[in-house]
């Protein structure tokens, strides 16, 4: 079946892993405590803080204890939805202040623009919150790329190594699974997408190979019509 939609991961795929670990995570770690203290009473923030209490089974945790839990989750690189949501809020402030610029590989920028122009519907699926995804592309070093995308998916659609997540996303995109091409640098994610019926493409920017999937070192070499 002809590919109609392209679903892409971010970290290690469109963007450098180092940007996330060396820029975004340290920024969130530095600024999150102050952000939580200043905005704890706001409904959107309060809801996420309550979710932290629920997830950690500490219903009466104080604001300072919640901050402590969040910093521990950052240290563990835990894919916790309330942490991702709060990080996204902190990063938004950083992007708006001009302190952060989203990294997107030049080959990814060019390919995404070409695919969009060619009529492919483009989507993002990342463990980072939808808000954080929009910020990376909307405030990128290459300018505002947000207009290229038809939708975004995060862990609220399920974990990235679970095929059920890809079935859910397929339903939301509204295309048959075999008409969707998924791009990632993680073989377990590619395996899950493949089991859900999607076409898959592995990004191996640093060399090596991900078994069971076509491998590419750059977006420039990917031709969606070949899948």
TrEMBL record:
Molecular function GO labels: 2,3-diketo-5-methylthiopentyl-1-phosphate enolase activity; 2-hydroxy-3-keto-5-methylthiopentenyl-1-phosphate phosphatase activity; acireductone synthase activity; magnesium ion binding
Cofactor(s) named in the record: Mg(2+)
GO biological process: L-methionine salvage from methylthioadenosine
Record's catalysed reaction(s): 5-methylsulfanyl-2,3-dioxopentyl phosphate + H2O = 1,2-dihydroxy-5-(methylsulfanyl)pent-1-en-3-one + phosphate
Cofactor notes: Binds 1 Mg(2+) ion per subunit.
Keywords: Amino-acid biosynthesis, Hydrolase, Magnesium, Metal-binding, Methionine biosynthesis
Keyword DNA-binding: no
Pathway(s) per entry: Amino-acid biosynthesis; L-methionine biosynthesis via salvage pathway; L-methionine from S-methyl-5-thio-alpha-D-ribose 1-phosphate: step 4/6; Amino-acid biosynthesis; L-methionine biosynthesis via salvage pathway; L-methionine from S-methyl-5-thio-alpha-D-ribose 1-phosphate: step 3/6
InterPro entries: Enolase-ppase_E1 (IPR023943), HAD-like_sf (IPR036412), HAD_sf (IPR023214)
SUPFAM superfamilies documented for this protein: HAD-like
EC assignment: 3.1.3.77
Complex formation: Monomer.
UniProt record similarity statement: Belongs to the HAD-like hydrolase superfamily. MasA/MtnC family.
HAMAP family: Salvage_MtnC (MF_01681)
Protein name: Enolase-phosphatase E1
Originating species: Pseudomonas graminis
Gene this protein is translated from: mtnC
């Amino acid at each position: 079946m002809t590919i109609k939609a392209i679903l892409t991961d971010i970290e290690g795929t469109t963007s450098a892993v180092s940007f996330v670990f060396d820029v975004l995570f340290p920024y969130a770690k530095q600024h999150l405590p102050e952000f939580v203290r200043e905005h704890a009473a706001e409904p959107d923030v309060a809801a996420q803080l309550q979710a932290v209490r629920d997830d950690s089974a500490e219903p009466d945790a104080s604001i300072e204890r919640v901050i402590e839990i969040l910093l521990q989750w950052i240290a563990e690189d835990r894919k916790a939805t309330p942490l991702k949501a709060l990080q996204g809020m902190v990063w938004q402030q950083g992007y708006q202040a001009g302190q952060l610029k989203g990294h997107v590989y030049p080959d990814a920028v060019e390919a995404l623009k070409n695919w969009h122009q060619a009529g492919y519907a483009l989507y993002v699926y990342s463990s980072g919150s939808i808000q954080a995804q929009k910020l990376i592309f909307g405030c990128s070093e290459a300018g505002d790329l947000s207009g290229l995308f038809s939708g975004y998916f995060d862990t609220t659609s399920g974990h990235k190594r679970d095929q059920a997540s890809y079935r859910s996303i397929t339903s939301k995109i509204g295309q048959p699974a075999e008409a969707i091409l998924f791009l990632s640098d993680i073989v377990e994610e590619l395996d899950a997408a493949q089991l859900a019926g999607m076409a898959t493409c592995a990004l191996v920017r640093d060399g090596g190979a991900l078994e069971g999937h076509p491998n590419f070192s750059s977006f420039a070499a990917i031709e969606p019509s070949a899948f």
